[in-house]
Amino acid sequence: MIALLLALGSSLAYGCADFLGGLGARKAHVLCTVMIAAPASLAVELLLWPFLGASFAVPTLAWGAASGVASAAAFALLYRTLAIGPMNVLSPVTALVSAMLPVAVGLLQGEHLGTTGLVGLPLALAAVVLVSAGHGAGSARPSRTALLMAFGAGAAIALQLVFLHQAPADSGVGPLIVGRAVSSAVTLAAAGLMSRRLGPEKPAHAMSAAAGVLDSVANLLFLLAARSGDLAVVAVITALYPAGTVLLARSVLAERVHRGQLIGLGTAAVAVSLLALA
Questions:
Q1: At what angle do helices 30-52 and 2-27 cross, to 10 degrees?
Q2: Are 120 and 275 in contact (CB under 8 A)?
Q3: CA–CA gap between residue 57 and residue 46 (Å, rounded)
Q4: 118 Cβ partners below 8 Å, 6+ apart?
Q5: What DSSP designation does 137 have?
Q6: Are residues 237 and 127 in contact, defined by beta-carbon separation less than 8 angstroms?
Q7: Burial 148-178, CB ≥16 within 10 A → b, else e
Q8: How far is 52 from 131, CA to CA, in rounded Å?
Q9: Is 199 left (phi over 0), alpha (psi -120 to 50) or beta?
Q10: Does residue 200 have a cis bond before it (omega within 30 degrees)?
């Protein structure tokens, strides 16, 4: 139950972070947004260090660095994807892709689910698919480029989560700090190399920083959830984050929420309840 609640919190934080990051990337080049978001995320994790502890053994450094590279790719691809839009279609596509790999890894590592879990897990995956039901009359259709970027973002998110899960359980926030330091360095280096292509537009500083802070909170909650529960379950619950993005896009941007998406939200509630019983 604790792992489930942590995963739900992570999902909510990811959804809000993605919405803000996508909006920020509409105002300036995506790297300008990530240049602010990644260091802001690192600052939060450094502040948590004295309270949650951290160790930096070789496995922690290795898995943390790997998650950082994946995180940098996820930041850039996801925010650019959401900037192209429509958010209510592309965000769930990334979520479905990001859920499948961690689920496979968890099951291959020997995780077992009870009867309710065996029902709830595929139901949760179905919920992610239903939430992505953004095609229909009056719905904006994403371009092929946007869909490819959404798949790439989902794969990068999945790798980040798997790498974080592989870090030693007693490493505290060490893998998060290492990961964010690496992703910040990669992002700043890329921005330096592409400085002439970033354009004159000023980034939305507050919005980008808020996205980074929320992403850091989401990563922490996911790490704590994965350490206290099954990766297969935690990853799927976390992948429900498009619900937050979709609802925010509906209320702030007036993007249309379709019947299939509403059914998906209800299905997600049932799936979470079943997984809680498991």
A1: 150
A2: yes
A3: 17
A4: none
A5: T
A6: no
A7: ebbbbbbbbbbbbbbbbbbbeeebbbbbbbb
A8: 35
A9: left
A10: no
- Residue with tokens 């990563």, as numbered in its chain: 219
Residue in this structure with the two tokens 């799927």, named with its chain if needed: 236
On the CB side of 244, CA atoms within 13 Å amount to 21
User: In this structure, what token pair is assigned to residue 222?
Assistant: 């996911």
Residue 219 half-sphere exposure toward CB, CA atoms < 13 A: 37
Q: Which residues pair with 248 in a beta bridge?
A: none
Rounded CA-CA distance 139/258 in Å is 9
Q: Residue 260 corresponds to which amino acid?
A: G
Query: Do the beta carbons of residue 82 and residue 147 sit within 8 Å?
Result: no
Residues in the chain: 278
pLDDT per residue, tens digit, the chain (278 aa), is: 788 889 889 988 988 887 888 787 777 777 788 888 888 999 999 999 999 999 999 999 999 999 999 988 887 787 677 677 676 667 667 777 787 788 778 878 877 767 776 777 777 777 766 765 554 444 556 677 777 888 888 899 889 889 998 999 899 999 999 999 998 898 888 878 777 777 777 777 888 899 989 989 999 999 999 888 888 788 878 877 777 777 777 777 666 666 776 777 677 767 766 665 55
Measured at the alpha carbon of residue 75, what is the angle toward residues 14 and 157, in degrees to the nearest 5? 65
- Angstrom CA distances, 40 to 80, 82, 146, stand at 19, 20, 27
